[in-house]
């Protein structure tokens, strides 16, 4: 039996229960989790903003140790430490052929197939985003288990699976921040904190953190922010003032709200670049006039999983972790048990803290 946090239906509260987890089949591996981050995407899955078959065990940002492998698995072996990849690319679809694995058409297939059973009645369970990391153990496709580079603490490594790859990629791949450029980061949660650190590592000059909560200023500055702005009606104006009157070269939106996206875009200079990392609902509509699009010459782009290739990017990120330039533990504001997930969801809704980390 394995303890897991179960979502029985959309908008239902998560409850910790026991599940029957099978041994891995062909091209599958079984992993004992060391830690799992509580991400806003898990909240979006639970409330129906993102689609997920239910009942399901959520959780997609995790790291652990392989305990068993199924037939034909050669990429990892029992005893290996791994990071979960919730969007493993197939290598064969149109987007993979374009060298854009973050857009892989088949990366979400595992989430739609039952992977375990509820111990109480034997009903089928689905793995949230294909990984089901809110559990003591999980079974995932072998290509969703990435070997953990040496020198990275296993517990903190869970953050590499989503927050860090997303924030790193937003800066280095999507926005392509250059040394000396000014960067504004909207939303100082787990992804926002990773984005601030990535901007600092990229050599950005002025780094402005924006959040609705003034209590997050200390967190933001520790991650690399040189300025902090409490979000309000004059946010874009204040950012322009902090960046020589022109606006930021780059804005990274980590919230997923129409108003915040619009403000991020307005806070950049003429010719500036806005990368949207936050996931919003279909009802969140962003509007621009045709004239301002022409006049400002700004770029607005979406960003999926940091536009990252985890197999390529993890070793690079790990080098920064080993050097001390990237501090994974600085993203974590609370370490909890499985039973603490509902409170962590409430804290995210209230805009409190950075990343809550489940430690097993």
Short description:
Helix content is 26%, strand content 26%.
Helix content: 25-40%
Question: Tell me about the biggest sheet?
Answer: 7 strands, mixed
Shape: globular
N/C terminus separation = 15 Å
CA-based gyration radius: 20 Å
Strand share of the residues?
Answer: 25-35%
Structural class: alpha/beta
Indicate the low-confidence ranges by residue numbers. Answer: none
- Strand tally is 18
Write down the secondary-structure element order.
EEEHEEEHEEEEHHEHEHEHEHEHEHEHE
| Global mean pLDDT | 96
Question: Quaternary state, please?
Answer: single chain
Explain what you see.
This protein is α/β, with parallel strands linked by helices and 360 residues long. Helices cover 26% and strands 26% of the residues. Strands 3, 5, 6, 9, 10, 17 and 18 form a seven-stranded mixed β-sheet that branches. Strand 15 (268-276), helix 9 and strand 16 form a beta-alpha-beta unit. Helix 4 (163-174) packs across helix 5 (190-201) and helix 4 (163-174) packs across helix 10 (310-323). The radius of gyration is 20 Å and the shape is globular. The two termini are 15 Å apart. The mean pLDDT is 96.
Defining traits:
globular; alpha/beta; 18 strands; six-stranded parallel β-sheet; 360 residues; 26% helix; 26% strand
């Amino acid at each position: 039996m394995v303890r897991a946090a179960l979502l029985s239906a959309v908008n239902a509260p998560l409850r910790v229960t026991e599940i029957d987890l099978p041994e891995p089949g062909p091209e599958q591996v079984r992993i004992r989790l060391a830690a799992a981050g509580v991400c806003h995407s898990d909240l979006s899955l639970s409330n129906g903003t993102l689609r997920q078959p239910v009942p399901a065990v959520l959780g997609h940002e995790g790291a652990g140790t392989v305990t068993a492998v199924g037939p034909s698995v050669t990429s990892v072996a029992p005893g290996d430490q791994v990071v979960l990849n919730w969007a493993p690319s197939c290598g064969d679809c149109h987007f993979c052929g374009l060298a854009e694995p973050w857009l892989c058409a088949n990366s979400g297939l595992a989430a739609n197939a039952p992977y375990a059973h509820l111990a109480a009645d034997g009903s089928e369970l689905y793995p949230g985003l294909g990984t089901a990391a809110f559990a003591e153990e999980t079974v995932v496709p072998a290509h969703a288990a990435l070997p953990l580079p040496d020198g990275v603490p296993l517990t903190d490594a869970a953050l590499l699976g989503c927050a860090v790859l997303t924030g790193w990629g937003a800066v280095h791949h999507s926005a392509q921040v250059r040394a000396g450029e000014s960067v504004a980061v909207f939303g100082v949660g787990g992804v926002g904190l990773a984005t601030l650190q990535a901007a600092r590592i990229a050599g950005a000059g002025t780094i402005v953190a924006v959040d609705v909560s003034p209590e997050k200023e200390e967190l933001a500055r520790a991650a690399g922010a040189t300025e902090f702005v409490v979000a309000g009606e004059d946010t874009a104006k204040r950012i322009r003032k902090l960046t020589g009157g022109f606006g930021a070269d780059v804005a990274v939106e980590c919230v997923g709200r129409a108003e915040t996206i619009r403000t991020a875009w307005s806070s950049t200079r003429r010719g500036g670049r806005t990368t949207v990392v936050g996931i919003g609902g279909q009802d969140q509509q962003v509007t621009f006039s045709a004239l301002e699009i022409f006049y400002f010459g700004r770029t607005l782009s979406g960003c999926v999983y940091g536009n990252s290739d985890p197999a390529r990017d993890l070793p690079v990120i790990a080098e920064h972790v080993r050097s001390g330039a990237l501090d994974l533990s600085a993203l974590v504001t609370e370490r909890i048990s499985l039973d603490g997930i509902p409170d962590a969801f409430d804290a995210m809704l209230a805009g409190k803290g950075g990343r809550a980390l489940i430690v097993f």
